[in-house]
Amino acid sequence: MNMSRQVVPRYLEVADALRNTLGDYVSGDYLPSELQLAQRFAVNRHTLRRAVDVLISEGRVLRHQGRGTCVLPTPIVYPVHAGSTYSKTLEGMGFRSQAVLLNRSQRPAKPDEAKELALNGQEQVVEITTLRLLNELPISLIVHCFPSRRAQVLDAYQGGSLRSHLEQKAIALTRASTLIGARAPSQQEALQLLMPRHTPVLSIRTLSRDAQGQPFELSNSISRADRFKYHVISGDQHEQ
């Protein structure tokens, strides 16, 4: 029986060819102009643009208005275990990690925060928001919440690794629970992370305890799903 051969749309063929060339570029490089690429693949600019859109949807490139199409880094696999700390882990993988302080405030606790942090009565939370950068490129937004009775040890924090700041105060935290999910970024979040609105973000909610086993920090982070993958490691695996 003869089976008719399914014809692959030309823009998908071009997308596949473009995908195979990305290894020739360094993260942050720009592809040749749409006109140059259209001429190279002998297609019109509409077809070329559709091909580039495929790579954008895969998180491989990002189109900057007026500048061109930028090649994005390959996803980072971040190991999640009880003792993992953001800055130290990523710096150990060879990345330059920065944490920029965006906001600090004290506010009433939400019901779930009050429960997880075991707050007393009407105790408030200290909220600190940081933007994390790897090799100068934004990767994550993190909202850290602490019981207001811990405010004194946080007053001097002006940026950088929060864990390192706490360790200087002789406070060592251990990850007690982690909840991982995904969602669409808000317009503001997409702007802060320099990412397309249609690309999802990975969310991670972490409760950390101090050496006495008391809840100390509840953090909610979002990371670019095109840049980040979480590898959850059990205690036995981490000890090996």
Automatic annotation (TrEMBL):
Entry-linked SUPFAM superfamilies: Chorismate lyase-like, Winged helix' DNA-binding domain
Highest taxon in the source lineage: Bacteria
The HTH gntR-type domain, residue ranges: 8-74
InterPro entries for this protein: Bact_HTH_transcr_reg (IPR050679), Chorismate_lyase_/UTRA_dom_sf (IPR028978), CP_lyase_PhnF (IPR012702), Tscrpt_reg_HTH_GntR (IPR000524), UTRA (IPR011663), WH-like_DNA-bd_sf (IPR036388), WH_DNA-bd_sf (IPR036390)
Gene3D superfamilies reported for this sequence: Chorismate lyase-like, Winged helix-like DNA-binding domain superfamily/Winged helix DNA-binding domain
One Pfam family named in its UniProt record: GntR
Keyword field: DNA-binding, Transcription, Transcription regulation
Molecular function terms, GO-annotated: DNA binding; DNA-binding transcription factor activity
Family annotation (CDD domains): WHTH_GntR
Protein name, per record: Phosphonate metabolism transcriptional regulator PhnF
Species per Swiss-Prot/TrEMBL record: Pollutimonas nitritireducens
